[in-house]
Write a structure and sequence with these properties.
Keywords: Membrane, Transmembrane, Transmembrane helix. InterPro entries: DUF2798. There is one protein chain. The chain is mainly α. The protein has one domain. The chain is about 80% helix and about 0% strand. It contains 2 helices and no strands. Helix 1 packs across helix 2. The radius of gyration is 17 Å and the shape is elongated.
């Protein structure tokens, strides 16, 4: 079992794995249709998307938390 202290890094790692896969699948289908080499093209696009998405998420998550905190703060 992985120690819970790695959670702040593992969450965006796993989340971006799925999100990059879904978005790259959609964009690959939209731009190419379903050519014979679709799977290889999609996997290449997925890898590229994930390489970009993971560090982006590490930077974006703290900002998103602050924005959500600001939007949901009780004002009085």
């Amino acid at each position: 079992m992985i120690p819970s202290r790695y959670g702040p890094v593992l969450f965006p790692l796993v989340m971006t794995f799925f999100m990059a896969g879904a978005v790259s699948l959609l964009l690959t289908v939209v731009n190419l249709g379903l050519p014979p080499d679709f799977l290889l093209r999609w996997l290449a696009n997925w890898a590229l998307a994930w390489i970009f998405a993971f560090p982006s998420a590490l930077l974006a998550i703290p900002m998103a938390r602050r924005i959500v905190g600001w939007l949901t703060a009780v004002r009085g």
